[in-house]
Amino acid sequence: MAGNSGNARDNRQRGNAAQLLEKYKNMARDAQLAGDRVQTEYYLQFADHYFRVLGESRARFDEQRRPRGE
Questions:
Q1: Is the pLDDT of residue 3 over 70?
Q2: Mean pLDDT across the stretch 34-45?
Q3: How far is CA 27 from CA 2, 50, 69, in A?
Q4: Which of 48, 50, 56, 57 is most buried, by the most CB atoms less than 10 A from its CB?
């Protein structure tokens, strides 16, 4: 199969969690403006996932920065 056809699924995401959160929020907004409630919800679920990933990453980062013994 030559090239990357529109039907081929590439499961690898491009970007970090913050970038992907914004990407899916924007896609959800666009779907909502187009009146597609199902697609809006679909993208919001991805956005929610990356929102949670960011929260977990920030919590781990804060934990690592905390001085020992606190």
A1: no
A2: 98
A3: 28, 14, 44
A4: 50
| 10 — pLDDT class (breaks 50, 70, 90) | low
- Residues 43 and 61: their CA atoms lie apart, in Å, by 27
Token pair, residue 52, equals 């949670």
Indicate the SS3 state at residue 27.
helix
Total residues found in the chain within this entry: 70
H-type helices in 1-36, by residue range? 17-33
Residue 15 to residue 2: CA distance in whole angstroms: 25
For residues 30 and 39, the answer to whether their CB atoms sit within 8 Å is no
Identity at 49, one-letter amino acid code: H
What radius of gyration, in Å, describes the C-alpha atoms of the chain?
A: 17
